[in-house]
Amino acid sequence: MLSKKIIALFWAAIAIVVVASCTSSPPRDKPSPSPGVKAEAALPLEAIALLTPTAGNQVTGSVRFVQSGDTVMVTAKIQGLQPDSVHAWHIHEFGDLSSSDGKAMGGHYNPEQMPHGLPNNPKRHAGDLGNLTADRLGKAMKEITVDNITINGAKNPILGRGMIIHAETDDGGQPLGNAGKRVAQGIIGVPQSG
Ligand SMILES: [Cu+2]
Ligand SMILES: [Zn+2]
């Protein structure tokens, strides 16, 4: 009697195993290994804005951005400025060239709701780069390293925004540094080498 019961239990156990294996869900596709890591590595770490003059001006040049860790080196090479003059340069909100006076680029790029400021002030617009100085030939070279923007990372990404050179000097005053008219504009984009 006992052995019959044991055999019956044995077959019952087998039946449960078979049913369980038949009803278990089919194997799902494995997630691709670390997709986030791959996307991070593909982020561009360089950007460039090629500047064209606004109406009535001759200012041209380029501004290059190279990200390294938490900092971005910004290098401007500008020509066509007034000799021996000082000019504000900012990243503006929009990469929109549709206005011949540069106004379609909007205000200073300011995703953190900061007041305007010069680069020595940590509480400033993300787009506030201060001033660059033209030599007697109207050429300006300037390099500055900042830690409040990224090319296209999580922190204040600048790709696709606007680059503006102004007629006047940025005095750090509110709301926009009294920098005057916009003499050159360009869209911050991905460079060929980036
Ligand atoms: Cu500006
Ligand atoms: Zn500003």
| Strand fraction | 25-35%
On the 0 to 100 scale, the average pLDDT is 87
Bound molecules: copper (II) ion, zinc ion
Q: In this structure, how is the largest beta sheet organized?
A: 8 strands, antiparallel
Task: Briefly note the CATH topology name.
Answer: Immunoglobulin-like
H and E order: HHEEEEEEEE
Instruction: Catalogue the unreliable spans.
Output: 13-27
CATH level 4 superfamily: Superoxide dismutase, copper/zinc binding domain
Describe this structure in words.
The N and C termini lie far apart (82 Å). Strand 2 and strand 3 form a beta hairpin. It is built from two helices and eight strands, in the order ααββββββββ. By secondary structure, the chain is an alpha+beta fold. The protein has one domain: Sandwich (Immunoglobulin-like), CATH 2.60.40. Strands 5-4-7-8-1-2-3-6 form an eight-stranded antiparallel sheet, with no helix packed on it. The longest helix has 22 residues. The structure holds copper (II) ion (CU) and zinc ion (ZN). The site of copper (II) ion (CU) has 7 residues, from strand 4 and strand 7. Zinc ion binds next to loops.
Task: List descriptors.
binds zinc ion, binds copper (II) ion, alpha+beta, 8-stranded antiparallel beta sheet, Immunoglobulin-like, single chain, 15% helix
